[in-house]
Amino acid sequence: DVRDGCFYRFTPADYPDPTAEQTVRLSTPGSGPGFAGPSWDAPTAQTAPPSPGLVAAEPAETTAPALRLAAAGRTRRGKRGGPNEDAYVVADGLLAVADGVGGEAAGQIASTLAVTTVASFRPQYAENPEEGLRQAVARANQVVREKPREEPSWSGMACTLDVVVLGRQRSTGETLTIAHVGDSSVWLQPQRGRPRRLTTPHAIRNGPLLNAIGLADQIQADIFSEPVRAGDRVILASDGITKVMTPEQLDGLMTELGKEPPERAADALVEAALLAGARDDTTIVVADVVSEPPGR
Predict the structure, then answer these.
(1) 69 φ/ψ sector (left φ>0, alpha ψ -120 to 50, else beta)
(2) Facing residues of 226 across strands?
(3) Per-residue pLDDT at 63
(4) C-alpha distances in angstroms, 122 versus 164, 195, 259, 280?
(5) Parallel, antiparallel, or unpaired for β 6-9 and 86-91?
(6) Nearest to 12 by CA among 53, 73, 59
């Protein structure tokens, strides 16, 4: 379920080739698989292709422990009106949420470029996911940074970016690796119990962003890892919900929703933000760490 927002679900065979120039199509509801939202062409990236070996290759056979992410995402436009500038990706072992800023459609373009660029690098398959994410985030920053050279009206566009990957190598398959830029948030909910916020906002409270994709030529991202096991839950959220609910309210609601599947939990969190009067767009991704079914 995606309303007025940008979403793309990747399967391994669908990953865009980051070494090629591409156009990403966001289609109107019902007009294409995976995407929902306004129809426009995200401009082709003019950056140099990554060096050989930078994009992690998907192994012929899964070498990770028998864990996977069962995820669901929801996004809703805020009460302020205008286009939904959030975007998110749910892929095999990768989750990403971005919140765009910029005039006209620029914020939506920035957030979509950021999440699809990171997903195309497949950092979950890297032998070192932290380094894979570092390279992917740097490339996303480069792509967003260069777009206004093609269209001056996009000058100043930027976005937050939070990415969570579950490693797909045997040595990384019980570890979540997180990359954080901006003021969106990531929580870990061990055994779907009390959540623990993993990220710190790169912003002055109720003030401007201090760090974002596209703000500067060099990007500083918080990148770190957390061990996980089957039964844990991870939640990503744009600031639409954190601006209208206190940490105590969020902790209580997430704890109460721990018994619900990801789809219902994501629905409930988005609705709670709207009921609380969220003016900003709200995007939630909820993912459970589950055991891989036998025979997969």
Answers:
(1) beta
(2) 176
(3) 54
(4) 12, 27, 31, 30
(5) parallel
(6) 59
Q: How many residues does the chain have?
A: 296
Q: What is the dihedral of CA 107, 113, 115, 117, to 10 degrees?
A: -160
Phi, psi of 233, deg, nearest 5: -135, 145
Lowest-confidence region among 116-120, 147-151, 249-253, 271-275: 147-151
Tokens (6 digits) for 228 = 């996980």
Residue type, 115: V
Written as six digits, the tokens of 32 are 């294409």
Phi/psi of residue 60, each to 5°?
-60, -35
pLDDT in tens, 243-281: 999 999 999 999 999 999 999 999 999 999 999 999 999
Location of structure tokens 């991202």: 221
Q: What is the separation, in whole angstroms, between the first and last Cα of the chain?
A: 27
pLDDT tens for residues 161-211?
A: 999 999 988 888 899 999 999 999 999 999 999 999 999 999 987 778 999
Q: Which among 166, 169, 168, 121 has a CA at the least distance from the CA of 141?
A: 121
CB 8 within 8 Å of CB 34 = yes
d(CA 71, CA 214): 28
CB atoms within 10 A of CB 218: 9
Q: What phi and psi values does residue 203 have, to the nearest 5 degrees?
A: -160, 155
Q: Which residue has the tokens 């939202």?
A: 37
Burial class (CB in 10 A: 0-12, 13-18, 19+), 149: exposed
